[in-house]
Amino acid sequence: MFLGTYSPRLDDKGRLILPAKFRDELSEGLVLTRGQERCLYVFSETEFGRVHEQMRQAPISSKQARDYIRVFLSGASDEVPDKQGRVTIPSSLREYAGLEKELAVIGAGTRAEIWDAEAWNEYLREKESEFSETDEEVIPGLM
To answer: How far apart are alpha carbons 33 and 55 in whole angstroms?
Structure first.
């Protein structure tokens, strides 16, 4: 499970060093793809396979499902971290997420997310306020 927030930097070759706590789960390979809110999703190969299988269950007659699957999969890139735990982020994905030098890598349970640090901090400021004001059952059984 991916948990926590980390602040790695993007090097001049477009690589980041994965947080140490994420390396075991991602050491055999990972998939980077476009995420929502202009971040990147990072899946282990196993989890990406599960997500892809769920997508295959969507009816091909659904335009919204086709559109989502196209955007999600067309940007996907399978990568293998090097011995130092570095992974290269393709330039198209760096551009999509607006990644500069300073990054935020967050754990989101079954996936990690890579954000531009400034974009993450802005998102978090906005959502922390909404989080504290939540008064209905957003996640069934949690509140």
So the answer is: 14
User: Other CB atoms closer than 10 Å to residue 68's CB: what's the count?
Assistant: 14
Task: Tell me which residue range forms the domain holding 114.
Answer: 5-132
d(CA 36, CA 86): 24
Q: Is residue 48 part of a domain?
A: yes
Sheet strands side by side (includes 77-79): 5-6, 103-107, 112-116, 40-44, 30-34, 77-79
Q: Using CA atoms, how far apart are residues 4 and 113, in angstroms rounded to an integer? A: 11
Q: Give how many domains the chain has, as a whole number.
A: 1
CB 139 within 8 A of CB 33: no
CATH label of the domain that carries residue 91: 3.40.1550.20
Is residue 105 classed exposed, middle or buried when 0-12, 13-18 and 19+ CB atoms within 10 A define those classes?
buried
Residues of the chain falling short of pLDDT 50: none
In tens, the pLDDT along 30-41 reads: 999 999 999 999
- Three-state DSSP at 95 gives helix
Q: Would you give the distance in Å from CA 132 to the centre of its chain?
A: 24
Q: For residue 35, which of 116, 102, 100 has the smallest C-alpha distance? A: 116
